[in-house]
Amino acid sequence: MLARKVARNAIYNSSATLIGNISGLIITVFLARALGPENFGIYSLSISVAFLVLAFTDLGVNQTLIRYVSEAVGMENTSLARGYIRELGKMKLMLTTLTSLTLFLLSDFLAENAFHSEEMATPLKIVSIFIFFYPLSGFLIGIFNGLNDFRANFIRSATYELFRVTSIIALVYAGYSVIGAILGFVIATIAALLALTILFLHYYRPYIFGFAEKIELKRVLRFTGYLTIGSIAWTVFAYVDSVMIGMFMAPEYVGYYRASYSIIGAIAGILSLPAVLFPVFVQLEGEDLKNAFNRVFRYSAMLAVPASFGLPAISREVVLAVYGSDYLAAVPVFWVLSFLILRSAVGFWAIIFNAKEKPEYPVRTTIVGMVLNIVLNYLMIPVLGIVGAAIATLTSNVAVWSILAFLSRREFGIFFSPSYMAKPAIASLAMLAVLIHITPRTVSEGIAAVLFGVVVYFVALYLIRGVGREDVKYFMRVFSR
After folding, report:
1. Residue 293 C-beta-side C-alpha neighbours within 13 Å
2. pLDDT in tens, 421-474
3. What is the DSSP string of 38-98?
């Protein structure tokens, strides 16, 4: 029953991610071609600032909400869940309002003194409006996920991406350029917020209206406090490379970097499961937790490892097909960042620590990774340019993964079997040996080459006993009614 629930939620979450990633690629490709490298760089820098600042609208509130609402639901205590939603909702609204207003008031100063471009002022003002509405829809998603309901992820993604694609394309074609592209984000997030509000009031009205049990505020604030630090650190960790490229180099190089990162992020997002597993891990203990981790890690590695090995082999063709020859400077970045896809397989440890009310471990580790990333970017961007930023990002991520793996083994006795990574790596090398001898001349030939590589990979994996009949039977049981 649990496996089926996880599978169902994974389908909702993966579908939402797939829609978002396809939409993101469409927007990125359209804007990269329509705006040109310089204006696309300004757009990319503005959006990077937006998501960097968004960390201050959350400060761990969403993860705290999911964790404690999930616990209350497991105890069948609706009034306690209602109490968590109300108290954390007040915190969320306050943080969102303060952050949005602060960025709006500081936009002129930042444009002139941080980015040395007056053209950044208006985009930053529009970004501040986006920053007000986007976190509110994220809070509603947190309630749904805490209730172990991931339908809302799909509905939010479908609504948001439909309005984002249509608004951005229409506004840019109407001549609004960078301003129109960013306004599209504002329109989309307002539409998604309205859709989620209607859905929530229809299905979960009792979790808002009625008596709310008093929560253990000290316990919640301790958990939120660690996640506050972690949220800021992780967001800086994720976006500091783009911002530092914008500070050291011309805006078009931010565009090259984000063009490559968008494709890698899209693939990694589709393969990732941590969001679905968080409410499940909250309710598992001991051997059940270990077994769940091992199974998910193994299957995630089967997909993430070949993707990270295979993408560099076809990176030039992908960039040409998606962005055109103007963006070939992104290819070396693509080679390095492809290995970030491994995060889909090794990104579960932080989820386990948070589920078991030990957020201090991933928080401290993320801070180490953030500092390492900033230092490496500072040292490597002036020397190696955007490739240096990519190396800094990959190196710091690997450091975080390694530390969390060690801590997970020490605290919970949870670690993966080396064969879970080794066998997919061996099969991936066999696939890579085939792909490097294929030079597709058209998009259809490229797709055929990828499909052939997938066949080679799974045949090789089967021959070295990395996958077998029992795996097929397991998936049949999971997805059967």
Report:
1. 27
2. 888 888 888 888 877 777 666 667 777 877 888 888 888 888 888 777 776 665
3. HHHHHHHHHHHHHHHHTHHHHTTHHHHHHHHHHHHHHTT-HHHHHHHHHHHHHHHHHHHHH
Q: What total number of domains does the chain contain?
A: 1
444 or 190, which is more confident = 190
What is the domain extent for residue 211? 1-215
- Does 458 fall in a domain? no
Residue 235 in domain: no
Model pTM score: 0.62
Query: Considering Cα of 40, then 44, then 50, then 54, what sign does the dihedral take?
Result: positive
Residue 204 lies in a domain: yes
Q: How many CB atoms lie within 10 A of CB 160?
A: 26
Among residues 456, 449, 145, 183, the alpha carbon closest in space to that of 313 is found at 449
Nearest to 319 by CA among 388, 263, 254: 263
* Cβ atoms of residues 277 and 332 within 8 Å: no
Tokens at 1, concatenated: 């029953």
Alpha carbons 422 and 144: distance in angstroms, whole number: 37
Q: Nearest-CA neighbor of 452 among 467, 474, 436, 473?
A: 436
Asked if residues 184 and 130 have their Cβ atoms less than 8 Å apart, the reply is no
CA distances from 346 to 1, 128, 182, 235, 280 (A): 25, 34, 33, 19, 17
